[in-house]
Prior knowledge:
The chain is 25% helix and 21% strand. With 232 residues, the chain is α/β, with parallel strands linked by helices.
Amino acid sequence: MTLGRGGVPTVALTMGRSPAARYSVHRGYLEALWDLGANVALLAAGPGAGMEQALDLVRACDAVLLTGGPDVDPSVYGAQPTGLEKDCDPERDAIEVAAVHCALEEGKRVLGICRGMQLVTAALGGRLVADLPAAGYCGHDAEERESSRVHGVAAAPGSLAHEVLVGMGMVNSIHHQAVLDSGEQLEVSARADDGVVEAVEAEGVLGIQWHPERLPRDDIGRLAPFRWLVGA
């Protein structure tokens, strides 16, 4: 079943809970999907947003988009807190982990962007780097240049990551955590110049570390991941 009309795809889009007393999501995600003619249904955690309601929404939609936001709680990937994690939201984690499994069981595509890629990886058995600077990797948290491509990336030929990069060898970068181990269900399909994981994928799943939703509207790579998600 789909919430759209006339064959228009509907995407379940996750949301954060920051700042206080607000649900929030970067407008670029919605604008990219709207530019492709898709509808959006908001998927949030919090009082009144029960697990079954969330999964019913996933089942009713055509695809799931896991957006950026705070760090994934280390308990999701079986690790102990390091003290370097920022603003973890276990309720959001629980809703999104369940949404990933539900979507895949239903044969729906899942796209994870930044935190979304990390959440997908953790949900499917992978592990994360708690803090890139502490691990010796710098230059990945360049929010002041959010709409600019700031470092190199190389994708495996023939991969989904290669497809959505559309020939671009640079990406923007706004993160301090990353994928350490993709686990057995996902393959690493792109890395930054310094070796940091920039994409993971499997059948019906794509996770990317960069932020296409924040690229300029005339950037040829802005819509590519979302186009894959909705099958456009």
